[in-house]
């Protein structure tokens, strides 16, 4: 693989970052993952817009303009010609002597990128459907900022897998917030699509926005509101969305099988129309 580090394209073994980088010392960094489909990025302008917002919310000076970031992304795709997978991008506040106070403007933020090859359309997990267990949401209160501080989410996923599930849905104040790296949805017995409303308690998924718009066009009734673990277990269908997994069915919640234990028909339909949308929004 060829990776990108602060102005250079290098073989991955040669790439280096300072041990004083604030991403390393303070998780003082933000990231985005643009999915690669047919060798191009899906809905990438939306990811760059969210990256800009994440940096703004943290008072982080961008490493360069968004246009320049996009040029680097395109060069990465040229140098790593993969059909399906993801392009990971990370901006940290850069390297400075360790201090809780942000360094001054002369410290340049750091930009890195790498690709990961992985089947996205023909996903084994999407065919089988995911098993979910509930875990307490112990993350911070600004989950709308996409920071690299992912340890609580990582702990929740490991705990879920320890219980024989594939992933966790995190629970706070008796309500489901989201998955460890995806947004969470249920379809009730009377066909209402329910997902938590946007706030600082969840990441505003790029895929969430697209899927809700497509579901509306399909004539589905949508409620953006809280739901409890108990309501989730009574659902007709459930699924998650993320850039890297598109729409992926959930077939078992906390030991309760949903429907016949395979991804439901509305979930399958939403996955198909999202993939069509993705193919029409490549760059
Ligand atoms: N929530 C969390 C906590 C996530 O990490 C992700 C994946 N980045 C998502 C939701 C889904 O967001 P997106 O659709 O933009 O990938």
UniProtKB/TrEMBL annotation:
Determine if Nucleotide-binding is one of this entry's keywords. no
List UniProt keywords, sorted A-Z: Amino-acid biosynthesis, Branched-chain amino acid biosynthesis, Pyridoxal phosphate
Q: Which reaction does it catalyse?
A: L-leucine + 2-oxoglutarate = 4-methyl-2-oxopentanoate + L-glutamate; L-isoleucine + 2-oxoglutarate = (S)-3-methyl-2-oxopentanoate + L-glutamate; L-valine + 2-oxoglutarate = 3-methyl-2-oxobutanoate + L-glutamate
Pathway(s) of this molecule: Amino-acid biosynthesis; L-leucine biosynthesis; L-leucine from 3-methyl-2-oxobutanoate: step 4/4; Amino-acid biosynthesis; L-isoleucine biosynthesis; L-isoleucine from 2-oxobutanoate: step 4/4; Amino-acid biosynthesis; L-valine biosynthesis; L-valine from pyruvate: step 4/4
A cellular-component GO term for this protein = cytosol
The GO terms describing molecular function are: branched-chain-amino-acid transaminase activity
Q: Which SUPFAM superfamilies does its entry note?
A: D-aminoacid aminotransferase-like PLP-dependent enzymes (SSF56752)
- EC number per UniProt: 2.6.1.42
Q: Which PANTHER family match?
A: AMINO-ACID AMINOTRANSFERASE, AMINODEOXYCHORISMATE LYASE
Protein's job = Acts on leucine, isoleucine and valine.
Similarity comment text for this entry: Belongs to the class-IV pyridoxal-phosphate-dependent aminotransferase family.
Q: What is this protein called?
A: Probable branched-chain-amino-acid aminotransferase
- List the taxonomic lineage: Bacteria, Pseudomonadati, Pseudomonadota, Alphaproteobacteria, Hyphomicrobiales
